[in-house]
Write a structure and sequence with these properties.
Length: 120
């Protein structure tokens, strides 16, 4: 397992075979915050993950897909609230702590109670 994959599993402490589990998420796109708090997270094989806000009806979804061949990652989201799939591309992202970031977006996920207190 690469260091990146191990770090993501450590941050989320979820098995790749699990369905959605409770977590804490933060999603910022173009300077606007769309998720900030309790959410559902599903980790996929290879460390990729999907996160959904916990509101009913669900408004936002974000996905980080990690290429197992080289460890690069891309993020997508459902730009239109309540759209069930994350089809809008956010571009290539790099990992910074519990977040995957680029100039346009921050997609962050933590297991409950592990979000850094100083996170902004």
């Amino acid at each position: 397992m690469t260091l990146r994959k191990a770090a993501l599993v450590t941050v989320l402490t979820l098995s790749a075979s699990q369905a959605f589990a409770a977590g804490e998420c933060f999603l910022e796109v173009d300077g606007r915050v769309f998720m900030n708090g309790v959410c559902s997270i599903a980790v996929r094989p290879g460390g990729s993950f999907e996160m959904r806000d916990s509101l009913k009806p669900m408004r936002h979804v974000a996905v980080v897909k990690i290429d197992p061949a080289d460890g690069t990652a891309r993020a997508t989201w459902n730009e239109q609230p309540r759209a069930s799939r994350a089809r809008s591309d956010l571009g290539s992202v790099v990992r910074q702590g519990g977040c995957w970031v680029n100039a346009r977006a921050r997609v962050c996920a933590w297991q409950p109670g592990t979000r850094p207190r100083d996170f902004q």
